[in-house]
Amino acid sequence: MKKTSDGLQPVQSLLARERLSIDAMYPGRTCFLSHLGAVRKLVVGPWIGHRDLLYSLALANLSPDQRTSLGRAVLVDYGREFGVGRVVLTALDSGLPLGGSSLLLTPRKQGPVCLYTWALGDQASAAPCQWVLMRAQPQWALEKPPKPLTARALETLDALDAKVVIAVATAVEAVQVAEQCLRGLQFAAHPRFAPHLATDPRPADAPGGMWLWPHDALTVDSLRRREPNVVVLVDAPERLQKTAERWAATQPQSIELTQASCPGRKGREGITAFLQACDGPRVLLRGDPTWAQSGEQWLRDQGIDVETQSDATQLGLFA
User: Does the model's pTM come out above 0.85?
Assistant: First the structure.
């Protein structure tokens, strides 16, 4: 893979002087929303997003002010150029549901071409660039990631009348799990996810149960009352695993905790092919420190030039 002569400073300078933020809300900046749930807090302001993402966001439980921002948001399509400040932008299909998008940033004058990604599905679109801004994901960052969740595994648990919680981070993962692993099974979803899923109510007298649940709501009373005996942690960072272990130890029933990867995401072979299709860019790696450290080493072993930024020193524009 070839390397560019540019350092990280031109990337930081490009972003610092522009009016755009990505998956982060700042006063006076227009925010591009890449994926449903990628923004930790949906602050009122000027928004841009793929039309499918904004349509999906309309189903969420928004405040009146947030709905006003949504009504004024700019809808974009994949492959169509638009601009904010002195940067030409192009949304590309990330291969993930609900309008998931990567964002190509091309300066109108001098500066590096950058491709921002939040996560990449199997069919993600690539583009020639000098930098790819990636969030470390366990499917490719870890040497031995958990196996992807499968329909067969959940069908087996359902046949055993197990009470199963499938814990995921965002609605994007919830849709992927539902579409690839829960077809033909009856399950319920947390209110945050339910509007985005086509589910059939599980009969009230059914002995087992299966629930799609957010990572950050794992210890709430409404889940405790369901008395699950299996919890599948999908793409759970170490801190969540420890929280789940402590929570499980306090429950009256025995709970089996198991790890899994989200289906439909790129592994190491897919990431290598993706970077090659991007014309051998440098990589700015961010995200969970454990995943980022492992991912950095693997990328360097592939001959890829990598810069890292931990969650604590994140570029302000990139969540």
Answer: yes
